[in-house]
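Is this the right way to post structure tokens for a design question? Let me know if I should format differently. Anyway, here goes:
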């Protein structure tokens, strides 16, 4: 079974309040929200991405972001270049879900498989009018490979169906030199995972009950948890 390094690539940032992350908690508390793409490099030679991030022509950090965090968002191609890679080196993409800030650069990877849950693809093709976060144009030319439920379509990569934030979210679990690690898939940060007690339901969801159950499932897995929008993430492995 391959072991992976996980490198968070910063493709954008926003400045909402904490209530976007934690249901019924933190409203009015402003936070920095990073838009990560996760580079997975296996010791067997596999090179994958979890998500493709904010579209390159939309990368613009809010005022004060660099001053507060010391970080700067870059277009995905520049993030990959800093890792010695080009889009053509990526062998597969895992779409945790199809909100615009998670699939904005799908077109950079023509022909390669981009794994998405069937329920997510169906909803993204015909989203509810209240849900403005979908734009099928980002993925219409992508080679979407629809999966259903928990599965392992790539060596050493486990996809875990965790609906609620959207109808077809999938988490990504791999083994790293530090042990098992899970990229949550649904949007959350460290405040969703208190040291004691249950995890806090994501603040944005299409089904709050499912979202609550899904985040409890991820917390119960143990190991390293990488919340999708946690500012303090660093490379593992």
């Amino acid at each position: 079974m391959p072991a992976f390094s996980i490198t968070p690539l910063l493709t954008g940032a926003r400045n909402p309040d904490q209530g976007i992350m934690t249901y019924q908690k933190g409203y009015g508390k402003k936070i920095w929200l990073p838009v990560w793409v996760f580079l997975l490099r296996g010791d067997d030679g596999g090179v994958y991405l979890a998500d493709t991030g904010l579209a390159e022509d939309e990368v613009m950090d809010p005022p004060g972001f660099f001053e507060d965090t010391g970080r700067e968002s870059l277009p995905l191609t520049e993030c990959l270049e800093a890792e010695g890679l080009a889009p053509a080196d990526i062998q597969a993409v895992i779409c945790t879900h199809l909100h615009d800030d998670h699939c904005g650069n799908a077109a950079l990877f023509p022909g390669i498989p981009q794994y998405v849950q069937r329920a997510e693809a169906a909803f993204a093709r015909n989203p509810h009018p209240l849900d403005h976060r979908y734009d099928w144009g980002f993925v219409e030319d992508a080679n979407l490979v629809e999966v259903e439920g928990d599965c392992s379509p790539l060596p050493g990569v486990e996809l875990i169906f965790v609906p609620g934030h959207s109808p077809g979210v999938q988490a990504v679990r791999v083994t790293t030199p530090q042990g098992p690690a899970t990229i949550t898939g649904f949007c959350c940060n460290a405040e969703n995972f208190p040291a004691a007690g249950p995890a806090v339901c994501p603040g944005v969801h299409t089904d709050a009950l499912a979202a609550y159950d899904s985040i409890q499932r991820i917390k119960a897995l143990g190991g390293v948890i990488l919340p999708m929008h946690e500012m303090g993430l660093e490379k593992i492995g």
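Format looks fine. Someone answered above. Worth noting: The longest strand covers residues 4-14. The two ends are 15 Å apart (CA to CA).
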